[in-house]
Amino acid sequence: MEYVTLHNGVKMPKLGYGVYQTPPADTQRCVLEALQIGYRSIDTAQAYNNEEGVGSAITKSGIPREELFITTKIWISNAGYEKAKASIEESLKKLETDYIDLLLIHQPFGDYYGSYRAMEEAYKAGKVRALGVSNFYPDRYLDLFHFSTIKPAVNQVETHIFQQQKNAILYMQKNGTQIMSWGPFAEGKNAYFQNPVLQKIGKAHGKSAAQTALRFLLQKDVVVIPKSVHRNRMEENFQVFDFTLTEEEMAEISALDTGKSLFFSHYDPDTVEWFLSLVPGER
């Protein structure tokens, strides 16, 4: 396993297992299988409604808690100091743990400044080892970074071969924030696994297009959390530390970047309205 060291000295595995869209009924089994394969970093969120499955798997695995790295995220409906504070306690209970390794604000909507104050308080109390954000574009990331006391250690954003976040990474690197990818396979969009560049480079190393894509991100020092409910795919995604892409191969894959999201944009008013529609307004 390869690691990154966050700005506060906490070590984080560069490869983890994500449970986005994993049915709650399947989460315990999936996480247990991932842990058996060798994953030690698990990424969940309040909005995934499967923190309980993650917590149950952690307990049943028998793996010492200090060997695991658990990430969860505060959802929009829990934005604001009081709600966020209560939600952190609820997440700790569901995850069956005394502390969360990495706590993120899931989306930059609602009173995320209040949420971050609750997170800083939990950090100082030893209930969280590192703080961060998710889906924060450079403008909102820089704003929160400037006004926070404990600086965001991680920003989890859409990152894959077609959206490499080259501009955003510049600002994160400048301020010591680690980039973390969600959707490293772009959910198969753009014929991802049939991409001729990935297939050609993968074949040269005896690896799949998926493994090649993950290796590219890892060599760019991007933390990745690929998700699958199939054990054989979990195993395949884990076998990415026994080969290295050349500079020429890295350049070929880098050229695939479009600089655009394959999912949504926070700069699109319709997208913002959709996110806000998920949370009833205060009256």
From TrEMBL:
Say yes or no: keyword NADP present.
yes
Site features described as Lowers pKa of active site Tyr, chain residue numbers: K73
Domain of life, per the record? Answer: Bacteria
CDD domains named among the record's database cross-references:
AKR_AKR5F1 (cd19133)
Catalytic residues in the record: Y48
Identify the residues that the record assigns to the NADP-dependent oxidoreductase domain, covering every copy: 20-257
Q: Where does substrate bind?
A: H106
Q: Which UniProt keywords apply?
A: NADP, Oxidoreductase
Q: Which GO terms describe its molecular function?
A: oxidoreductase activity, acting on the CH-OH group of donors, NAD or NADP as acceptor
Which PROSITE patterns does the entry link to? ALDOKETO_REDUCTASE_1, ALDOKETO_REDUCTASE_2, ALDOKETO_REDUCTASE_3
Q: What InterPro entries does UniProt report for this protein, alphabetically? A: AKR (IPR020471), Aldo/ket_reductase_CS (IPR018170), NAD(P)_OxRdtase_dom_sf (IPR036812), NADP_OxRdtase_dom (IPR023210)
Q: Which PANTHER family match?
A: 2,5-DIKETO-D-GLUCONIC ACID REDUCTASE, NADP-DEPENDENT OXIDOREDUCTASE DOMAIN-CONTAINING PROTEIN
Protein family: Belongs to the aldo/keto reductase family.
The name this protein carries in UniProt is Aldo/keto reductase
Biological source species: Mediterraneibacter hominis
